Amino acid sequence: MSTSENSSGGGTVEYIQHHLTNLCVGDCDPVTHKATGFWAWHLDTLFFSIVLGALIVAVSWRLGKNLSAEAPGGFQNFVESIIEFVSSQVKDTFPGHNPLIAPLALTIFLWVWLMNFMDLIPVDLLPVIAGLFGINYLKVVPTTDLSTTFAMSLTVFILIVYYNIKIKGVGGYLKMFLFHPFGKFLVPVNIVMTLIEELAKPLSLGLRLFGNLFAGELVFLLIALIGGTLATGLAALFWLPLQVVLDLGWLIFHLLIITLQAFIFMVLTIVYLGMAHVEDH
Amino acid sequence: MNITVTLIGQMAAFVLLIWFVNKVLWGPLNNLLAERQKRIADGLAAAEKGKHELELSEKNAKEALRKAKQQAAEIIAQSEKRASEIVEEAKNNARAEGERLITAAKAEIEQEVNRAKEQLRAQVASIAASGAEKILKREIDRKAHDDLLKDLASQI
């Protein structure tokens, strides 16, 4: 792995920055490739997330065609265990019954996990392949793009507001802002507090996932640099094994993190929507 | 962070994916799991019912066996009683028959004896008559002495 292969200028900073730049089309800064306006398409994010979503649908479709109640095959057993896991989480943390919650939680868990999993693919593999086709920027992990994480957290936020209003009514929802958490004598404080509390939900959801995955990707890049820039000539004999060992360690640890982050996003979604369903909040 | 078309696109993808997952994955599999759960519950209930029925029929069988044994014992006792009765009856019959035979035999013997006595008497009378004839050496009027001879014979 060498830096000059992928970055325009060379050097570690460019290498990392290059890897963390989306393939931006539309209203983008021509130099930094950052979005400048509304019409900024992050094609890599959109591509990988939609491909992974389509993968879920395709695999489910194939599985759904030969479902067997009597003799479930190995893969069906595996999927059943995931579904039962999500189902039990929903049953444990969600009060009452809402047919949307479980599929929502399942979708979040599967999709986020798959998008996070892109992080475990060697950092240079897909960008190099894309480079062969003339695509110079590629960020393969959709969850390291704030657009993805906030897309999900904002959708969840919209659902939170929707169910708050549906269950408590508009008046009940506004009352929550006025009299929670300190009762009727501290209305201004209550408004600020509840507003912060409500806004913190989507913000923390989106930022937590983004931060964890971004940091994980960054560590992968730094590990990739050990063998890439520091190793020249005989020194490679020392640095390359170190890179392999560190990479393996971080891979194993990160496997835990991506599962944990997918799980946390799912559980918090259930909890937030559960809070929206409870009358006396 | 700008609000970009990517964000909107990802939201649309997310919502669509929820819809798809619900339709092709969650729905069918959840139905399957619910169905299987119901079948297992039904199976367990059926097993429980079967166990109960088994217990019941075992109890019934025991009861029937007990009754049959009791009946058999009764029948045996009855037949034993009947057998002893039959034996007793046979004994009585045999005894009566024996007695009857003995009486008949005795009567016949008596008859025989009487008949022999009659014959003997007649023979003695004729012998006596012929003897007297010889003793007297002369013809006696048989008719005149017949009554006497009969009287003699009856005394023998």
Structure description:
The complex is a heterodimer of chains A (281) and B (156). In chain A, a hairpin with a 6-residue loop joins strand 1 (24-28) and strand 2 (35-42). A two-stranded antiparallel sheet of chain A has the order 1-2. Chain A has one domain (3-277). Chain A has 281 residues and is mostly helical. Chain A contains nine helices and two strands. In chain A, helix 2 (12-19) crosses helix 8. Chain B has 156 residues and is mainly alpha-helical. Chain B has a domain at 49-155. Chain B contains two helices and no strands. The interface between A and B is large, with 46 and 32 residues.
Poorly predicted residue ranges of chain A: 1-9
**Helix run count of chain A:** 9
The total strand number of chain A stands at 2
What portion of residues of chain B belong to β-strands? under 5%
Specify which chain pair forms the largest interface.
Answer: A-B, 46 and 32 residues
Biggest sheet of chain A: strands, sense, closure?
A: 2 strands, antiparallel
Shape of chain A: globular
Strand order of the largest sheet of chain A: 1-2
Largest sheet of chain B: none
Total number of beta strands of chain B: 0
How many helices of chain B? The count is 2
Q: How much strand content do the residues of chain A show?
A: under 5%
The rounded Rg of chain B comes to 60 Å
Multimerization status: heterodimer
What's the average pLDDT of chain A? 85
